[in-house]
Amino acid sequence: MPPDRSSDSSGTDSIGGCLRDSLHPSGQSAMRGQSSIIGVALLLGITVVAISALTASTGALVADGVAAADTTRVSTDLNQVFDPRNNRHTTEMRLSRGTVSVRNRSIRLLTDGDDVVWSGHAGALVYQSGSRTLTAFAGAIIRQDRQTATMPGESRISVSPDALYLGVPVLNVSGADAVSTRGHRLVISFQTAARSNRIVLPAAAYKIAIETTTPGIWEQHLRERGAETTTQRDIDNDGLISVIATFDGTRRTHIVVHDIQVNVAVGQ
After folding, report:
1. Is the backbone of residue 214 left (phi > 0), alpha (psi -120 to 50) or beta?
2. How far apart are CA 119 and CA 98, in angstroms?
3. N or C end of the chain: which has fewer CB within 10 A?
4. C-alpha span between 44 and 120 (Å, rounded)
5. From the CB of residue 103, how many other CB atoms can be counted at a distance below 10 Å?
6. Which pTM was predicted?
């Protein structure tokens, strides 16, 4: 009688099935494994993107904070340079970023008929760092950023019932007219002259004309100083607008011209 192999065959099939199940998982188990791997990869990717975004925003905030600190320090230095009480004074401005340039700017005194009585080619000192700009001109400092322009301090223009006072710092620059730090240390030396030139004009109806790239803030300031009206016009056709302020009545005008020697040196 031939031996019965059904039980052995059945056992073999059972063992083989178990081995196949263990060595070759079902489609459902494989999909679960792949889903887990994809999920982990996505989480890692999202984490990396989030960390990169946080690092970039933190870096931008730090850079913006440094630029703001530099601008504040430069503004303080310029206030000291243009302080009328500093008849003989030297200020050194040290910069690690940004650009300093001297721009052509004029301030004029006009008659009621718009004739030029006096003109001063004073020059403006401009500091730029990123989106921030400081412009020192006509005894005032204008601060600009992407949205606004402000005049934190006072200008050298004042008005009384019978007199008009106009202080005009005139920049005499030696060295380059524009210098960029470009990773180098920049030193600018300001030396205020000991003497000033004083001019007194007889009583009349005068207008003050100030060349500027920020006419709005100058119009506001001159109105606060007592200007009856303000207009804008390119007086000498050089493409630069002048804000012209008219004051009611007649006044003697006192003009004080302060000579400021500016020496620009790089890499010191």
Report:
1. beta
2. 31
3. N
4. 65
5. 16
6. 0.70
